[in-house]
Amino acid sequence: MANEACTYVIFGATGNLSRVKLMPALYHLEVENRLPEGSKILALGRRDWSQQKWLDEVKIMLTEKARGGLDETVLQRFMARLSYHKGDLHDKQNYVELATKLADSNDFPSNIAFYLAISPNDFANVTQYLSEVELLTETHGWRRLVIEKPFGYDLESAQALQHRLSSYLKESQIYRIDHYLGKGTVQNLLVFRFANVMLEPLWNRNYIDHIQITHSEALGIGSRANYYDNAGALRDMVQSHLLQLLTLVAMEPPVSMEAESLRDEKVKVLKSIRNIPKQAVHAHAFRAQYAKGKINGKNVNGYLQEENVPADSVTETYAAMKLYIDNWRWRGVPIYLRTGKRMAEAQSSISICFRHPPLQFFRDTQVQSMQPNWILLGIQPEECLRMEMTVKEPGLEMRTRVSSLDASFRHAHENPTDAYEDLLLDVIEGDRSLFLRFDEVEYAWKIVEPILQTWAVERDFIPTYPAGSWGPEDCRRLFEKEKQFWRCSLTPEDK
Ligand code: BG6
Predict the structure, then answer these.
(1) How far is the C-alpha of 239 from the C-alpha of 150, rounded, in Å?
(2) Cα–Cα 20 to 30 A to 329, which of 94, 105, 254, 320?
(3) Whether 241 is catalytic
């Protein structure tokens, strides 16, 4: 059934997220003819912009981001959907005006998605104002609220936020976004795991030695110090994106792709993660901050020299963790998560290391050691699915080397889509499977809470790593075995 026309109301439309992600994603949905006929996009911003000024701005945003260049015909169709509404988020009167504007269903379809691309401090108040002018009441058409991360600052604030939101909205109206769930490889992970029968027998503690999930960035914090210095890498990446990736790698097969089945299985994983007692925090977690260094041959500042960072900040820009999932499938298998800014390369990947095979069979040959098999899932910049196998080197000797079987899923002519395209479309379609249910958020906070609390009081010292490196050497101490190492490459030659 075709989707019904809807209105996307974007709060914070002139901000960075909207420029870089939301407007380009909506444009690309237009390219694909996926915006239902008659749909509108209403931008809300503080700036005193005319309709024409907004259209000009959008054109600039799209020129930078449109894949394959802007298509004039599509652009005209897209522009016809856009309107601008100037208003102050904190002013009640603004919401009265907004409601009056939206009430005219000749202009704006009455199925409405409100996208809060604004400071997390404003999430609850804006929702309250929307509710007070009855914009969240579903008498005519659906009303949905899309809320960006971070959902809370810690467990308590997340619960408080949830408490307020749930007094204005039903759970089915809330779309908590984690854009990692919209990424191509991440969605493919479900297909890879549950559409290939050969993997399932191996996907457990009997065959898997450990799992690593890495997100590294070459970029620093840019101009985000005001947010980042209060957040740090553990909150910014691990509590949200990396734990979400972990749930998909580790969950049991859900009954179906339907939202509640998927979320039930994800929550079970989070609930089964072994609690880290405060006295064990240092054995399970490592933090560090980037010092000055070189990226692509260029000198770059250390974190403390970045604009608006307090000189004595001990906020971590690198965080690593070791976790255990105490269930039948994963008992005893360490899961290592790490993330960092200003690292050697930008890379997001999941690396699964299998157990070592016995060497006995090769005892009278030149084979001295054997590499374990790995499954490598590249999320970005390279999207790939690879399996590393040991093969015999050609020639008269019995020597081995590692060969990589490539199951990459994109052909050269197939364009990658951005995660936000999938997710914005899911909102229109009412599909919440790639959005977070509150208990997922809550359990994710519970997992990192002891670490956050310990780090919060240890304010005298933080280890550093040079910008442009793969992070602090000392982080190796998280590994359970001498043979384990951080996997930095998706190719066998240079791991
Ligand atoms: C955001 C974090 O949620 O994700 C940023 O706040 C981080 O600090 C970003 O850079 C990474 O997303 P992506 O899609 O660029 O990997």
Answers:
(1) 9
(2) 320
(3) yes
For the chain, count helices (H), then strands (E). Answer: 14, 18
158-197 pLDDT, tens digit per residue, is 999 999 999 999 999 999 999 999 998 888 999 999 999 9
Q: What is the pLDDT of residues 350-402, one digit of tens each?
A: 999 999 888 777 777 777 777 899 999 999 998 999 999 999 999 998 888 89
Please give the Cα distance from 15 to 116 (Å, whole number): 11
Q: Regarding the domain delimited by 181-418+429-478, which CATH topology (the fold level of the hierarchy) does it fall under? A: Dihydrodipicolinate Reductase; domain 2 (3.30.360)
Q: How far is the CA of 19 from the centre of ligand 1 (A)?
A: 15
Distance 361 CA to ligand 1 centre (A): 46
Distance CA 129, CA 110 (A): 18
CATH architecture type of domain 7-148: 3-Layer(aba) Sandwich (3.40)
Tokens 């609220």 label which residue?
A: 145
As beta bridge partners, residue 335 has 211, 323
Q: Catalytic pick from 179, 210, 241, 284? A: 241
Task: Kindly report the protein residue whose alpha carbon is nearest to atom 2 of ligand 1.
Answer: 236
Cα 13 to Cα 20: distance, rounded to the nearest angstrom: 11
Residue 416 has pLDDT above 90, yes or no: no
- Report the residue among 151, 219, 237, 316 best suited for mutation to probe ligand 1: largest number of ligand atoms under 8 A from its CB: 237
Q: Where are the domains of the chain?
A: 7-148, 181-418+429-478
| CB within 8 Å of 117: residues ≥ 6 apart | 10, 11, 12, 13, 15, 17, 18, 22, 148
